[in-house]
Amino acid sequence: MNAYNFAYLDEQTKRMIRRAILKGLAIPGYQVPFASREMPMPYGWGTGGVQVSAAVLTPEDTFKVIDQGADDTTNAVSIRTFFERTAGVETTTATADASVIQTRHRIPEEPLAEGQILVYQVPIPEPLRFLEPRESETRKMHSLEEYGLMHVKLYEDISRHGHIATSYAYPVKVEGRYVMDPSPIPKFDNPKLGDMAAIQLFGAGREQRIYALPPYTQVISLDFEDHPFEASKADHCCGLCGTTNSYLDEVIIDDAGGRMFVCSDTDYCEARQAAGHKGKDAA
Amino acid sequence: MTPLLSVHDITKHYGAHIGCADVSFDLYPGEVMGIVGESGSGKSTLLNCMAGHVTPDAGEVVFDTRADGPKDTVTMSEPERRMLSRTDWAFVHQHARDGLRMGVSAGGNVGERLMAVGERHYGDIRAKATDWLGRVEIDAARVDDRPTTFSGGMQQRLQIARNLVTGPRLVFMDEPTGGLDVSVQARLLDLLRGLVRDMGLSAIIVTHDLAVVRLLADRLMVMKSGRVVETGLTDQVLDDPQHAYSQLLVSSVLQV
Question: Is the ipTM of this complex over 0.95?
Answer without folding.
Answer: no
